[in-house]
Design brief:
The chain is mainly alpha-helical. Helix content is about 45%, strand content about 10%. The mean pLDDT is about 85.
Length: about 270
Amino acid sequence: WRLYRLHREGIFQKDISPITNALYRRRLTVIRGPIWLLAVFSAYLVRKLYGMRRSYQDAIQRGEIPGEKFPPFIIVTDEAHNFARRGEFSSPARSVFREVAQEGRKYGVFLILATQRPALLDDTITAQLNTKIIFRTVRASDIKVIQEETDISGEEGGRLPYLPSGTAFISSAVVGRTVSVRIRCARTQAPRTLNPFTELEKDYGGVDEEFYKAIADFLPLHIGQITLHLPELENSLNRSVTVDEVQESLEELVIAGRLEKIEGPFGPTYK
């Protein structure tokens, strides 16, 4: 019945190409759904994306010519204790989240975990978190875990249930101790490797330029002609593209001043 339930949700009928395409285009991808489904899907998705990034970086380290580039990325989860729960209960994604927490940084893969129940989060993952931002917390078990994982004093722990909105404690190796703040931006530099965010800008910042070169031969282009030219665009870009993606990229080029958009009775024309 579990497999039937997953099949009914359509998880076996689709692929993750929209997500990987979004990463190549430096887009934020939000995945929503019931927790039970996300727990299964995230196990596959994170393992697949992390494996692609790791294979690319390992090939570079071995001095080989890597295949297709794959960008650094950040995994952000809300209600993180549902994906990496502590104790004997094993969630589908816990093992890959552990691996990313322990080794992901050297490959340019990062974790941001948000939870209202830190006491339920896996101990191994919690121990690997370099920076902890602690907002209002009321449960005694959660406060106890926070005090074990940081150097928050008993007096500061007593303040946690009463912290106003926007006030937090930050525990970070950069600072050296836990401090009370309103907002603070951490600054880090990766040793021995190209900063992943510099790499992201260097290797993946020219996607729009590639698209512009591919679309230039079809200008002026009426919106109704996009479908007609999709096969040629996919061949030029060497990846699959959708009508929505083409429209979005055309609008971005208009905003950047590189294309002109002329409205007409049957839709806009770009030139």
